[in-house]
Fold:
Amino acid sequence: MSTPSLKVIVAVTSPIAFEILNNKTILHTSFNVARAFSIETGIKTQLAIAVENQTQVSGLDCEVLICNPNDPASLAAAIKASTPCDLVAIHDSQRPLTRTTQFHRAIEALIGDVDAVRPVSEFTETLKAINNDATIERTIDRTSMQRVSSPEVMRFSAIDFGGKASTWFVPLKSDAKISTVDADPESLRVNSLAEITLMESFVHWQQTVAIK
Structure:
């Protein structure tokens, strides 16, 4: 039986991906993590970037998928038209401090009859349901919800190319068996320019720990 091929896609989900973090763009940092994983893994791996405008990623040497990465159907169509592969890993460009160990953890969970895997973490904050009048209606049981991270890893055969909406990066077939793995605290998402400062402090902390 031949070894399956893997396509690792960095999805540019926000213009903030082109902002600078520790002397590099957030996109470059996320792409470098994906590239490091591709070197570490024993799986035959292709690297790709999913973006709306190819000129924005002209400096990166990899396959470029032109689509709306925030639209599951658009991203799925771009994957279908791209270089063939057996497995797909989609990493959010906005999670630049994700470690390669999280990639390995997700890939290794794709065993047996499991079709798709993604990292998740528990909420530690108190969650409140707020109505249209900005009034708190109730407290939400935080154990009933999980914070989703990336990469999402799935079998190419599990993608529903005719599907539209999805809570995953791409639509999955209705009978797809999904699983989760633990997400690392470092895999935070940069949602605003203000949060880049927080990420900078994380980078400096990581560098300090690495030196000790």
The CA atoms of residues 114 and 177 lie 5 Å apart. The two ends are 44 Å apart (CA to CA).
